[in-house]
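Researcher: Let's do a round of design. I'm pasting the structure tokens now; please hold your answer until I've finished.
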């Protein structure tokens, strides 16, 4: 799967004398993504509650069902309804993509935490893929254009009721900052995950964005 680092910058690099932190927006390609089994189950749950709310006689029990339905925020689990500029009649539930109505720019992110000269952690905050559910931790090689970086990684389920968000944390020694240099140069970094990989590259020629990547590298190297 591919992601592109883009604007807006969610948090510019901040250094407190010990640790540096920065966070960037990442976007997947604007293509159709399959619903996971869990997402399909959530949609079915919502439809059941919606039918109970709209198709029942008014009263306390119906009000209770409507309240339950209103608490089910499917967008938090990467589920959107309809595409931008699409009519309501043509809209369907689907895995969110950039052109989906309700997709929030910045809901998926690339976070850097480092101790200069010592270590760096890169975290990918993404809507959990179905094949991530069986992955807890691992070890692999992050591939850059001209080099490779050894890394350990862990998948942390973000506690959002049913946990459909994931943070994949990659830990490196200080040389891991080189991947930021490659991103600045317009190259991609390919992160291992299970039997597959996630590719990240800068998705904009915006000089201000590249400057923020460069600043993160200068702090973390």
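Researcher: That's everything. Go ahead.
Model: Designed sequence:
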């Amino acid at each position: 799967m591919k992601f592109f680092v883009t604007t807006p910058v969610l948090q510019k690099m901040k250094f407190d004398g010990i640790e540096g932190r920065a966070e960037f927006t990442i976007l997947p390609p604007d293509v159709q993504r399959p619903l996971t089994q869990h997402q399909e189950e959530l949609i079915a749950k919502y439809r059941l509650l919606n039918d109970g709310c709209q198709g029942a006689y008014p009263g306390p029990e119906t009000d209770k069902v409507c309240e339950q339905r209103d608490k089910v925020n499917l967008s938090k689990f990467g589920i959107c309804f309809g595409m931008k500029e699409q009519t309501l009649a043509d809209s369907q539930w689907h895995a969110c993509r950039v052109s989906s109505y309700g997709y929030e720019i910045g809901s998926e992110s690339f976070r850097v935490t480092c101790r200069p000269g010592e270590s760096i952690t890169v975290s990918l905050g993404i809507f959990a893929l179905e094949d991530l559910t069986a992955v807890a931790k691992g070890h692999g090689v992050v591939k850059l254009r001209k080099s490779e970086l050894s890394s350990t990684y862990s998948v942390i389920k973000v506690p959002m009721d049913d946990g459909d968000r994931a943070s994949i944390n990659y830990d490196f020694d200080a040389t891991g900052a080189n991947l930021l240099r490659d991103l600045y140069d317009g190259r991609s970094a390919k992160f291992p995950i299970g039997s597959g990989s996630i590719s990240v590259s800068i998705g904009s020629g915006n000089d201000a964005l590249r400057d923020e990547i460069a600043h993160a590298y200068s702090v973390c190297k």
